[in-house]
Amino acid sequence: MAVSDDLSRLSARAKEAEDRVASAKTKARDHLEQDVEDARQNTQKAAEQMRAQRDAAAAVADAWGDDIQRSWNDHIQRMRQRMDDRKAKHDAKVAERDAQDAEDYAAFAIDFAYSAIEEAEYAVLDAVLYREDADAVGSTATT
Q: What is the CB neighbour count within 10 angstroms for residue 122?
């Protein structure tokens, strides 16, 4: 399934759940109990599929994610150390400089998060493009 279809799939599933809950109000108890059991089994299957997909994706993403996570952890450790050091200082000039640094860091963190969202969008669009290329190559190879 294409990444771009995930949102539609999510919306359709939410509507299906809404409809089933609405119809459950008019069903006999034994039918309702069966629906609950079916939903439980479907949830279990979905959870197992998600775990399998997560594990497969994790294997691919680990190489990328490990470097990013390590870098981020180092960054957070430095910033927390700096914040801890700031708590020990009482000088007014130092406090003003630290306030400005904290504000600058907050702006940086917001920009970083925004950039991460843009990067995620780029990655999804790039995946769609690669899928189209792969489908095109596959269709020409079979003709």
A: 10
